[in-house]
Amino acid sequence: MTLEAVPPSLRGELSRWLLEVQPGVYVGNASALVRDLLWDKVVQHARTGRCTQLYRANNEQGFAVRMHGDPKRRVIELDGFQLIAVRNARHAELDQEYAPPEDDDKL
Question: Can you give the pTM of this predicted structure?
Answer without folding.
Answer: 0.77
